[in-house]
Amino acid sequence: MAASLASPAQAQNIKTANGTAYWDKDPGPIDPGSYWTSGQYKYDPNGYMERNWRDPDQFHLMTLYADHAGKQNCVFRRRVVVSTWDFQHPYLRVCRRPQTD
């Protein structure tokens, strides 16, 4: 849906994996937030502790597995903002394969 709202030039930069749309380009210097920097993702990989019971859509992945243009196995990408939750959690991690750390 988000890709259909973007112009053709923008739509080529939007990727979707597991129903989550994100911009497949380097977002530049980012502050991904305490979820990533605290290491919370290691014991809560899907962000279940970040859920809000009032949110009708409780399925929000924090890490996606898909091919990307970056050099590293995992890169941060900006979400395509569709909901308030996307706005409050603007970054996600896209990995080619699961981390081994």
Summarize the helices and strands and which ones pair or pack.
Elements: H1 2-5, H2 8-11, E1 14-17, E2 20-23, H3 34-37, H4 40-43, E3 63-65, E4 74-78, H5 84-88, E5 91-95
Parallel strand pairs: 3-5
Antiparallel strand pairs: 1-2, 4-5
Structure description:
- By secondary structure, the chain is an alpha+beta fold.
- 21% of the residues lie in helices and 21% in strands.
- It contains five helices and five strands.
- It has helices at 2-5, 8-11, 34-37, 40-43, 84-88; strands spanning 14-17, 20-23, 63-65, 74-78, 91-95.
- The strands form two sheets. A three-stranded mixed β-sheet has the order 3-5-4, with no helix packed on it.
- β1 (14-17) and β2 form a beta hairpin.
- The longest helix has 5 residues, at 84-88.
- The radius of gyration is 13 Å and the shape is globular.
- It starts with a helix and ends in a 6-residue tail after the last strand.
